[in-house]
Design goal:
Two copies of one chain form a homodimer. Chain A has about 200 residues and is of the alpha/beta class. Chain A is about 45% helix and about 20% strand. Bound molecules: nicotinamide-adenine-dinucleotide (2 copies).
């Protein structure tokens, strides 16, 4: 099991390597990779060693080869299907974002409980009633969900997602979800992110 | 200097304590606070000790007293003024979010470079031309910014924010910003968050 922090760093290396390829750069040192994430060259080599033997210290890496190796180990070619529950401000912004596809994540279905939103199209996807979540998730073999409903409906909708067979939830609500251990939950609290930042400029 | 992770935990305690007050709960043990964040009672006591002497081990905390003490130490009563640069999908979602005010953060101004958006109102705020950022930031004494422009304009707009006197940027773009040490940058990469989560459900 690779630690979450390592995966996050390696994903950012991957994104940066893709950017370098577009610029026409062919080689890169572990020092330049380290600068990107404000870590050390030895941390870079340690991270990459979790993903197999890459490059020798001092001789740098081939950008294309390293990027494709990371992509393969991280399972990029396997498309992950994601649904969004709650098509309010945040849900709509996430549904419209093209950057998920670069990482092999595709938004397959979107749900809401508001009759004014059901059957409306959002970026090509028809919004469905939250009550239909189980059949839609099963039919499309969706295993991940983004939760962007109000705090008051968070736990109830999360339960529905669990019962529909969803195995991972990215939770944007400020509510701590109580689910079985079969479902992995990751919380993003944007208000806490912004507030935490404010303490560094006392 | 209190570590960032500790501030993030204490902010979540504060949010939970507010929730408890609304439910009418008067006392809470460090064990219940620990459960909320999946940490230990001794971690809770350690976190709170950075913010002054609170409660004795074993006797729990008074919810109202603890919440107000945390709020005061974290400077909640001092409003932090924030602006948003880039009023696309994500910028609009963040501008419309009421949850920031609970933590003493207020969105004071929003900017964009698209003539179709300039002078339009978003949740009561008139969108201004990004070129006016310096005078608006100075006049309103804004010291924080949220960056939600496309990757291609991220560095240039970040420079403008720095020159306007902004001291902290919450960066949603996938670009590593190069700014002077006067500006504190915190990066949120929602695509990496979602992709990282997918590795836990191989
Ligand atoms: N907008 C932001 O920038 C932001 C920032 C931080 C956190 N959040 C959190 O994200 C969540 C969504 O925020 P928002 O600003 O998009 O809110 P919003 O009110 O704009 O959208 C919520 C959506 O959820 C739908 N909904 C309500 N109950 C539902 C149910 N039972 N099943 C399915 N859909 C349901 C509503 O119809 C609405 O479309 C909230 O929990 C909020 O605290 C948002
Ligand atoms: N939407 C999401 O869910 C999401 C998720 C992850 C990351 N992001 C990142 O957040 C950023 C914004 O994403 P989005 O989906 O809102 O994009 P968007 O294209 O909807 O919005 C971008 C906005 O920035 C404005 N803009 C462009 N150049 C500008 C400049 N020089 N000065 C001021 N404004 C300028 C555009 O006019 C537009 O209104 C992007 O960098 C994206 O990678 C977005």
């Amino acid at each position: 099991k690779i630690p979450k922090k390592t995966i996050q760093r390696v994903l950012i290396y991957h994104r940066y390597l893709t950017f370098l390829l577009q610029q026409g750069t062919r080689d890169i040192s572990s020092k330049s990779l380290a600068d990107i994430l404000e870590t050390t060259p030895s941390q870079v080599r340690k991270d990459l060693s979790c993903f197999g033997r890459f490059g020798k210290s001092g001789s740098g890496y081939d950008v294309l080869e390293l990027r494709d190796l990371i992509g393969k180990r991280l399972g990029f070619e396997k498309l992950r299907k994601v649904c969004i529950a709650g098509m309010g401000n945040l849900g709509v912004a996430l549904a419209g974002y093209r950057g998920f596809e670069d990482l092999g994540l595709t938004i397959q279905a979107v749900f809401d409980s508001d009759p004014k939103k059901i059957n409306r199209k959002f970026d090509g996807l028809v919004c469905r009633d939250i009550k239909e979540i189980a059949p839609v998730v099963k039919k499309n073999q969706i295993d991940m969900a983004v939760l962007t409903v109000p705090a008051g409906s968070a736990q109830e909708v999360a339960r529905r997602l669990e019962n529909a067979g969803i195995r991972a939830i990215l939770n944007f609500t400020p509510v701590k979800l109580t689910l079985s251990s079969r479902v992995k939950v990751s919380n993003v609290d944007l208000a806490v992110e912004l507030k935490t930042l404010s303490f560094f400029i006392r």
